[in-house]
Amino acid sequence: MNRVLSFLTLVVTLTNAFVMRSPSTTNFISTTALQATSSTVKQWKRSDVISKLAKEKGMTKAESEAMLDAVLDIVKQGVQEGNKVVLGSNFGHFAPQERAARMGRNPQTGEPMQIQASVSPKFTPSKAFKQALNPGKTP
């Protein structure tokens, strides 16, 4: 039960962090970051997310890292099993996406080659997440 509550706490924290509720709310996404071009967007590393989670939830970095690892493992396992993993209505979901076998070209020789079918993970952001990235626009 404690693990489930910790998992839900992390999901809620990440969801709240990525979705702005008002312009005065301080979150991962600031209004200047929303207006920035892709060349000026700062890349957040895993350690940045762990530090932010530890600070916001009053946990140690080790506890935050363990919680993040657990969530990522659960998401990965769910998608590997062919499931759609929904991380809250304010964030989005991960799902497996099948890619059919197809013909391609070897980039070095230009000769045709068969590309095997594969399955890739796909993330689809929620409507609320998209609206947070595009304030003032209606879908």
Q: What structural class do you assign from the helix and strand content?
A: alpha+beta
The H-level CATH homologous superfamily, spelled out, is IHF-like DNA-binding proteins
**How many domains, as an integer?**
1
Low-confidence stretches: 18-36
Kindly report the spatial arrangement of strands forming the biggest sheet. Answer: 1-2-5
With helices defined by DSSP (H or I, 4 residues minimum), what is the helix count? Answer: 5
Form type: extended
Reported for the largest beta sheet, the result is:
3 strands, antiparallel
N-to-C span: 38 Å
Helical fraction:
40-55%
CATH architecture annotation: Irregular
Number of strands: 5
What average pLDDT do the residues reach?
81
Architecture blueprint of SSEs:
Blueprint: H1 2-18, H2 31-35, H3 46-57, H4 61-80, E1 85-86, E2 92-99, E3 102-105, E4 112-115, E5 118-125, H5 127-133
Antiparallel strand pairs: 1-2, 2-5, 3-4
Which short descriptors sum up this protein?
139 residues; alpha+beta; HU Protein, Chain A; three-stranded antiparallel sheet; two-stranded antiparallel ribbon; 5 helices; 5 strands
